[in-house]
Amino acid sequence: MLQDQQYLRIPGPTPIPPSVQRAMAQPMIGHRGNETSELLRSIKPRLNKVFGTDQDVLIVTGSGTSGLEAAVVNAVKPLDEVLVIVTGAFGARFVAICEAYGIRVHKYEVEWGKAFDTHEIKEHLRNLPNVTAVFATYCETSTGVLNPIHELAAAVKEVSDALVIVDGVSCVGGVETRMDEWGIDILVTGSQKAFMLPAGLMFIAVSERAWDVIRSNPNRGFYLDLVKYRDDLAKDTTPFTPALSILFGLDQALDLMEKEGFENVYARHTLMKKMTRGAFEALEVPLLTNEEDASDTVTAVKPDDFDAEEFRKVIKKEFGLSVAGGQEHLKGKIFRIGHMGYCSPADVLQTLGMMEMGLIKTGKNIELGKGVAAAQRIYLEWGE
Amino acid sequence: MLQDQQYLRIPGPTPIPPSVQRAMAQPMIGHRGNETSELLRSIKPRLNKVFGTDQDVLIVTGSGTSGLEAAVVNAVKPLDEVLVIVTGAFGARFVAICEAYGIRVHKYEVEWGKAFDTHEIKEHLRNLPNVTAVFATYCETSTGVLNPIHELAAAVKEVSDALVIVDGVSCVGGVETRMDEWGIDILVTGSQKAFMLPAGLMFIAVSERAWDVIRSNPNRGFYLDLVKYRDDLAKDTTPFTPALSILFGLDQALDLMEKEGFENVYARHTLMKKMTRGAFEALEVPLLTNEEDASDTVTAVKPDDFDAEEFRKVIKKEFGLSVAGGQEHLKGKIFRIGHMGYCSPADVLQTLGMMEMGLIKTGKNIELGKGVAAAQRIYLEWGE
């Protein structure tokens, strides 16, 4: 097999554009100097656009999970009651973090592969008057579901004063997000998904209402204390040494997104979802989620007549193509294709072309080219 | 369109593997130090394998054309008579170089798109007793023809003592080459094709018989005087400062080829040719060359009911996909797809997928996915 070639189509980490790689290879700078301040000044307004907020988007060196923990330790106090909407493995992670801090958790579980129903959440919350925060996942990476975050906060506010805290890790930057307009109180994402960067940075923004809660919380930990990050970012600096190479890369990645146009970035992700789903529908291989609940950034496929793990092994060995498997009780039952960040419709076609051959090699009887052709048709109709 | 993404499928320069890019970014070294000697020692035996020769393969900083000129100025004297087999634009270049040096050229012209017939060359040469060198092109890049170089020298030797000088620029490294076994006297290639490197280095090897001729030539120029390169390479050095970054890259590119296995590299190129040709046959878009004459590294397509240039514009604008146009009298009439070097069967599928959509956008009525499916079938049968 051709060496030094891998196709990374898991739902993050995602491939890095060459110009971002080059930007990250810049000579190191001092984290307390003017160059770092200039870098942060260049980054800030673009992060505002991606989040859809006028609040400063804080930049923390850590993984996405550090962002979920930051939301919990800053906005919730031990013994507080919270509602966590669990639509998959990442909803469950919010539960685990809250429990680690002695927070009283009400779980609202949704069948994996389905989005939550906002009306049902509202009715459920009506009976939980002491809940101070509602945790939700925007894109549930483990199932490829995009939850209706845009309507959640308005519904919550009808029945509760609880803060609305959202994990946007595997979609923000790839799907339109209007934090302020939608009334989200805390929004978290990571660098290694739609931002086309390595893992290592976490971005988090906080509403005025949530800052009031955070300021009144006497125990916010130390490294993840968001007040420190907010006060320092206002002066174009950070409380602790940031992952400067990834900041160089972030500046360039935002340049690329701006050059493409944020609206076009989001439209491209929607198109890639439609192409991927259309191909598997044409091949009559079942999808885990229905059209309405499906994420623009990751598609979960649930085969009913071949082995998902065997298929993943075949395409990895034969083509160097990596897609993700299932998690928890979906382990072995699904595979998940990432189509986000540095990924084009032409890359989707290529992934589909390889997967069709992988299906044949796995023993599944399909008509070669049929999925690719369905995706091509969707592309051509989209352009019209 | 997704920024910072281009698909370079011209017949060279070709894409550079990431590990080769990284190798080329190594800190600069002195060209007279031990590090350079070690680098040359590491490179030499692998170049021998690629060329199929026990002679040292000389490394000259220059383009492929500098290699053609080096062959001429070293092995031919002004007023000598030579035979140049012209199967396309690069055969014609040998003519131009010879004429620039006052060499008397007999041209043997073959219809563009066809390979030469060795028997006919032999019969032609029978009537040219004073010819001291026969020039031929291995892969004629301008038409996608792979000439039967493997049988040329044996045929020439039957009727003449002329040296056999071969331009192997757009195929050596991608197709099997046995310089010694086939009796080639001088073989030239460049770095920017099957070697997966930027342009800037030229490789040239010379038979014992040709060295005798070269030594007796009193005017070999200066920079391209191959005796200088030979004497210096025997001491693991070069007469003039070499393009060291590309040497770093060459060392890594040869590592990649060795890791894949040279036989596998050549088989991959044959497969990619078959996939590309099979796709256009399925789509009923005519090819310029017949199966027997077709190169493993580049395929020329000659549409009969759509505009090749319009098609090239569409796929460049829509997908960032570059393929080459025609040269000289084939300008506007063909397009040429490179499938060599850092290019995999999966990349060929992707190129075909994009081109099918480009055909529709150009107004050509094709069945989407049909060419891709034909290529997939060829891939799957190949593996069996």
TrEMBL record, chains A, B:
Gene3D superfamilies, alphabetized: Aspartate Aminotransferase, domain 1, Type I PLP-dependent aspartate aminotransferase-like (Major domain)
Listed PANTHER family: ALANINE--GLYOXYLATE AMINOTRANSFERASE (PTHR21152:SF40), AMINOTRANSFERASE CLASS V (PTHR21152)
Co-factor(s): pyridoxal 5'-phosphate
Protein name as it appears in the record: Pyridoxal-phosphate-dependent aminotransferase family protein
Swiss-Prot/TrEMBL keywords: Aminotransferase, Pyridoxal phosphate, Transferase
InterPro entries: Aminotrans_V_dom (IPR000192), PyrdxlP-dep_Trfase (IPR015424), PyrdxlP-dep_Trfase_major (IPR015421), PyrdxlP-dep_Trfase_small (IPR015422), SP_NH2Trfase/AEP_transaminase (IPR024169)
KW Transferase (keyword) present: yes
Family: Belongs to the class-V pyridoxal-phosphate-dependent aminotransferase family.
GO molecular function, one term: transaminase activity
Domain of life: Bacteria
Domain annotation Aminotransferase class V: ranges: 13-328
Lineage, top ranks: Bacteria, Bacillati, Bacillota, Bacilli, Bacillales
Transmembrane segments: none
